[in-house]
Task: structure prediction
Amino acid sequence: MDLINTIQIHQNNFSKTEKKVAEYILQNPELVETHTITKIATESNTSTSAVLRFCQSLGFKGYKDFRYEMVQYLHNNHKPLDSTDLFNQLTNTYMQILTQFKNIDKNMINELVNDILEYHPIYITGIYYSSLPAKQLSMGLLDLGFENTVVNDYISIEHVSHNISSNAIMIHFSLSGQRNEFQRLVPDLLKNMPEKSYLITMNENADIGNAFTHKIILPGLTFKNQSVFDIQSISMIFIEIILNLIHNEL
Result:
């Protein structure tokens, strides 16, 4: 019996959170090869302890052993695409995503640019796989002469969150848009958000969207669920567009 069948057979024995982990892995088994236990927990909207319990329910000591078994299963049962075919497939997908950039709300884009020009201080946040876009925007704004504070870990945000004033602008990157991630990052800030706050995400139904005054949806969520790697390149392109629009106003 293979690992996928084993997971399916154990479905009725899983707890509610373990079932969420199982559903995510059954839909995206290939992602186990490159995802850490933390990433699996984040993407399945559960916790690392839930992922660990899921693995132990299947008879594994921990996620490491489960991951090893899944990788063996994938390599034995999935014939890889020809490299040329895969290259063309990925290229076409990226081109389709770039075309979808035209559908981003232009009024929201203009408002973000104007608020960056007018509101200070500027705070930019993002953790884990959303930290790189936060850093890129921060460095780009510094190059344009805009002082800002970038926060990409729990310790730093804990010190900063108490001092964010109402006249500041906050830009938060969360490709998944999951509320539990934001609650862990800035629990106190949810009760006292700045006047201008932007969530930049790929998830149109992001459950933390209501915590922000503005929400910008980037294309690429479907591809995000297909790729074995995080497609931070999508948000990077968005940031380059924003920086060029700001530069045009100077």
Remarks:
- The beta strands are 122-125, 149-151, 169-173, 196-201, 214-217.
